Amino acid sequence: MAHHKSAIKRIKQNEKRNARNRHQKSTLKTYIKRVREAVEKKDKAAAQEALQAAIPVIDKTATKGVIHKANASRSVSRLTKLVNTLG
Predict the structure, then answer these.
(1) Which of 11, 17, 41, 46 is the most buried (most CB within 10 A)?
(2) Is 30 exposed, middle or buried (0-12, 13-18, 19+ CB in 10 A)?
(3) In this predicted model, what pLDDT tens digit does every residue of 5-61 receive, in sequence order?
């Protein structure tokens, strides 16, 4: 256990940030899952709607530094490609 005041504060900050990041990552995965489920059901309208909801969440997660910006870009690209296969 930490003995210095600054180390104790750092532990508290890390716990808070970890919880916040975990929540954002979990939310992100849920939105991505909704898009994939809609594509599996071959429901183009629902898939496009889910994609439009997912893109801002993905971008916001990258902006906050929870995921890398390249990871976000790749996710958006792959999901868009997936939805477009329903054509």
Answers:
(1) 46
(2) exposed
(3) 999 999 999 999 999 999 999 999 999 999 999 999 999 999 999 999 999 999 999
Look at the chain and count its residues.
87
Cα gap 78→27, rounded to integer Å: 18
SS3 68: coil
Helix (H, G, I), strand (E, B) or coil at 67: coil
Residues 60 and 66: their CA atoms lie apart, in Å, by 9
CB 34 within 8 A of CB 54: yes
The rounded Cα 21 to chain-centroid distance in angstroms is 10
CA 75 to chain centre: 9
